[in-house]
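Journal club side-thread
Mid-discussion, someone asked how the predicted structure for our own chain would compare to the paper's figures. Pasting it here so we can look after the session.
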Amino acid sequence: MKNFKAFLFLMFPFLSYSQKQFSTEFSFINDNDLYISFQQDRYYTNGMFFNYRFISKDSTLQIAKKIFNIEVGHKIFTPFKAVVQSPEQHDRPFAGYLYGALGIHHFFENNSFLKNSIEIGIIGPGSMAEELQNFIHDIYGFRRAIGWKYQIRNAFALNFKSSFGKTITKNTLNHFDVTWINTANFGTVLTSISTGFHSRIGLKPLQRIINSIAFNSSLNKKGSDLYNEKEAFFYIKPQIEYVLYDATIQGSFLNTSSPITYSAMPFVFTTEFGIRFTAGNFNFGYAVNYHSKKLKSIQVPRGNFFGTIQINYQFE
């Protein structure tokens, strides 16, 4: 009996973790082509996203969870070389986008979700993209970018986003599943629709849509029958997007004075493949992203890559 009690005492930290219910989360995501190659610095060259999420106390028989998401995001776009001097060689406009967003995410018992959000911000010099890129280049000892005087001009940014997903298949051992995801964007920065799949291969049994770091749904309120479980899986997310309007390429229709603009490619293929895993209160991710040509420029290659790192911290 003494040995059994000692065993329970030693195992208590591990047993208690499996019963944790974290209700709040901070996350940081950084996109950068440096995570793929130190030789590449082009097109969508950096993205930084800070998120604060918390779970609502409200629930119904159909809605398993309602999670609120507050985000601050920043994106930087440049031509094939940020140090190219002649504007005639700019195969993509310099552009920056800074915004704040509020999202409400519903997760349903039938293995589906509906996420709605609104973004408000600015596109153009007011986004401070030039200053941020110079700061990053100074850290790494790279040459400072030139050509920002030709960037997309200042314009008010207001965008709406809605995404619906549902798990459509999984294997009997629950180590593989596929979720179909459809997304619509509408506003002064991006108007598009897309459809694609999120496939996971678990190193251990996968969590459902309503309780997985894959869908930012692993927050749980005290007293619920769901707990924060350990997760580790590889994933791939291919999708096809139809783009009607992209202000970072075409310039904003609210300010038509941008000196360099291009037409957006109507169809864009993207895919993201990576790994996600939990470690105590943290969960981490690394991904490689590919997208096909996004604008009608002869010089732009057919595809481009960038990397993503992600760190989330959950607490009660």
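Post-session note: The longest strand covers residues 63-78.
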